[in-house]
What we know:
single chain; alpha+beta; BirA Bifunctional Protein, domain 2; Rossmann fold; eight-stranded mixed sheet; five-stranded mixed sheet; 37% helix; 21% strand; binds histidyl-adenosine monophosphate
Amino acid sequence: MARPLFQALPGTRDLLPPDTDRMRELVSRFAERAITAGFGLVVPPMFEDIGVFVRLGEASDVVSKELYDFEDKGGRHIALRPEQTASVCRIYAEARPTTPWKAWYAGPNFRYDKPQAGRYRQFDQVGAEVIGSHDPDVDVELIALAARFFRDIGLTRVRLLLNSLGDGADRPRYLDALRAHFESDVGALSEQSRLTLAKNPLRVLDSKRPQDLELVASAPVIVDYLSDDAGAAFERVQAGLTVLGVEFELAPRLVRGLDYYTRTTFEFAADGLESAQNAVGGGGRYDGLIADLGGPPDPGVGFALGVDRTLLACDAESAFSGPDTRIEVWIVATTGGFEATELADELRAHGIRTDRSFDGRSMKAQMKGADRSGASLALIVGADEAAAGMVSIRSLREQGAQQSLVPRSDLVTKVKEMLER
Ligand code: HAM
């Protein structure tokens, strides 16, 4: 076959059935959970003024290297969203809903990342945010929502990593200690980490470069620098998770890829995936982000789960096969009349997955279509059946099954009965 003129760009994928069916089902399971917990769906635009995203942290790769930005025809500097938390905060600052405001979302995000398995330039997330409450019980509710969702879809090898990044006064004290630690042996750090150190010492903890590992491992940990308030909140989060039986591991060096976090931060790591791309979700508090965006000084907390990676983790665990969307009934009509059109309409109205051939195919070609569709039943209408107001039903699952003749008026009942067998 000739190579097509265009192919999907690097880092993008065309999703087709059955992958799309699985993805739709995954999002719908998440939606059910979020709605059951009082969250309402928000749909932020896919692009915003670049300023909305710059607040995610100029020291983060997401902002400094990976933004898809451009000037639109009106001369505005625009960026495709790399995530949706900043947009949710911008919406909150604009719409000022009553608090606590609980919002969930689903949809694609864009990052000019190095494409590899589990890392794409367009990827989907589902997520949830709560704005307007300092209560650490909100953090517990959100973390439990995500943990229960993973369990619900059948993943058993997902670990919850938990940390607190402190806030207010604790952060500068910790950053000073961290800076002093790395500067004490700065020559041992990789060149990239030396550059990162100048911008945000916290992010050096995130380095996976072998050269940096020793200094990172001996770095001071933030929990030793937490204020009484932040420490008590972190204790409360841990106690709440324990009450709910949500298992977690303390990860004192967990820093996230975005700069807006304060206090609780967490990540879900799937052990079935390669370690560089094993984060199937993450989140935390961002008590200063809304004010940074020019809104009120209201706190927020939330998470996003990577849909693509979650499905890869499901593959690795042979979990979550997705819904059965196969055609149940195939209609074969050879009269040239409207039998196939009418029958398909009637069966579909009863929720029976039904399809048919077009283009006046021969009986043989239509039966082939029936086989290919995976249908359980074929309905056959030839000239004799049409004249007698009958339809023949043939099971395609049982070898050598007899064909039965059914009056049109009994057809739906009979089809349902046979499908249930
Ligand atoms: P994030 O850690 O950047 O956080 O992304 C969340 C999840 O999205 C990751 O754990 C991963 O599963 C998936 N993901 C990220 N980048 C890619 C990529 N290039 N390809 C495939 N999957 C990817 C956030 O986005 C924050 N907004 C989470 C949050 C919500 N924090 C507070 N509220």
